[in-house]
């Protein structure tokens, strides 16, 4: 896959959200063709929706509530670590829950390209023995296929339910957070992607660093004295107090009302989260809300036995050369309350541009219920331009 399609995690903040040259999406003939395509398609697959996709659909109004959130750390500034041995992110956390998102690339090319190790370590800065309990774990093999890593990383995170992974760290001791990162050898231009959630009961310092493959993360930490200056580039880096939202549609959607879209993580109506960087507590912004979880609920009712198809598409493909593809992963709640985690698309790596779209799910009407509910968790997809509109299409099933 060409790296030109997937160079940066930040892409949601670059460019504009433009209305496409789409046709009249309410045209009965167009809607009829869309219905036929959707009815023949497999959920999760790419579909071709000719003369239909546009950013001009009516938007779903919603409320956004902050849910209890772990201390959220993201490491993506610099995204490309150009120094053979350096700390790319370093933050202090209080006792409690922590979410850590590592998104860094071996960018060393001067005087020559070399192999490195990119890893994350934690130091017990408290006075008592620390207990570290891992809750969610997602760690991918380094690769230049950033879309694949982003999709798989989120799938593993959603599915993860770590049990009995408890470590004890003495005061002043430094240990690796993820032993797999210690084993990986990272070639030039390869992305290291780790997504973790854990609990500590002592104050701690967390660092993401690059070193030689022969040296352990704790050894490198003891020797490296400086942190790479931040540049407010890419998604950014720092520590954030908000990382979980509850999104609730304010009105019940009726299939009689036609096509609608839910637009979140656009940086405008839904601003990027803010926090601080380092000991000086400098301003930080997560440009893209990457790693943020949107717990979403939409009430809907069926008219004339119609169902709702949920699709998404790459609405930013025309913006610039970096927006040529989009892939994501979502956790969808089934009627019985169980969850399905789905890479999207699941029959290709990415969707490129209109008329391509991804059929996320089809919601069938339940004749025993007047009002039904759509429930899913969305997280902005890494390596993709934002927003990724979630379009609801009434369909005859």
Automatic annotation (TrEMBL):
Keywords: Signal. Residues 1-22 form the signal peptide. This is Copper amine oxidase. The lineage of its organism: Bacteria, Pseudomonadati, Bacteroidota, Sphingobacteriia, Sphingobacteriales.
């Amino acid at each position: 896959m060409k790296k030109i399609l997937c160079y940066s995690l930040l892409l949601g903040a670059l460019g504009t959200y433009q209305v496409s040259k789409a046709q009249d999406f309410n045209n009965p003939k167009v809607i009829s063709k869309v219905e036929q395509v959707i009815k023949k398609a497999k959920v999760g697959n790419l579909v071709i929706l000719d003369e239909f996709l546009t950013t001009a659909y009516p938007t779903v109004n919603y409320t956004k509530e902050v849910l209890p959130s772990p201390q959220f750390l993201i490491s993506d500034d610099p995204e490309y670590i150009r120094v053979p041995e350096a700390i790319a992110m370093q933050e202090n956390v209080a006792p409690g829950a922590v979410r850590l998102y590592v998104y860094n690339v071996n960018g060393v090319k001067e005087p020559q390209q070399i192999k490195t190790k990119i890893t994350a370590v934690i130091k017990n800065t408290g006075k008592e023995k620390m207990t570290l309990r891992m809750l969610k774990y997602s760690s991918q093999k380094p690769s230049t296929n950033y879309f694949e890593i982003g999709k798989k990383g989120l799938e593993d995170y959603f599915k993860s339910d770590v049990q009995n992974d408890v470590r004890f760290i003495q005061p002043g001791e430094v240990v690796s957070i993820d032993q797999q990162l210690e084993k990986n050898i990272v070639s030039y231009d390869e992305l290291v992607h780790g997504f973790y959630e854990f609990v500590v009961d002592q104050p701690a310092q967390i660092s993401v660093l690059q070193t030689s493959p022969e040296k352990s993360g704790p050894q490198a930490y003891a020797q490296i004295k400086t942190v790479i200056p931040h540049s407010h580039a890419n998604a950014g880096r720092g520590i954030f107090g908000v990382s979980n939202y509850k999104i609730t549609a304010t009105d019940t959607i009726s299939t009689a009302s036609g096509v609608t879209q839910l637009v979140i993580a656009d940086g405008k109506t839904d601003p990027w989260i803010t926090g601080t960087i380092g000991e000086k507590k400098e301003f930080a912004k997560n440009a893209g809300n990457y790693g943020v979880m949107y717990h979403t609920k939409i009430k809907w009712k069926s008219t004339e036995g119609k169902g709702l198809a949920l699709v998404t598409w790459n609405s930013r493909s025309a913006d610039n050369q970096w927006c040529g593809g989009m892939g994501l992963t979502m956790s969808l709640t089934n009627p019985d309350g169980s969850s399905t985690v789905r890479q999207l698309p699941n029959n290709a790596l990415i969707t490129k541009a209109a008329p391509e779209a991804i059929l996320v799910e089809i919601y069938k009407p339940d004749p025993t219920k007047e009002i039904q509910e759509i429930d899913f968790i969305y997280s902005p997809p890494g390596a993709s331009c934002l927003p990724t509109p979630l379009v609801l299409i009434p369909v005859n099933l």
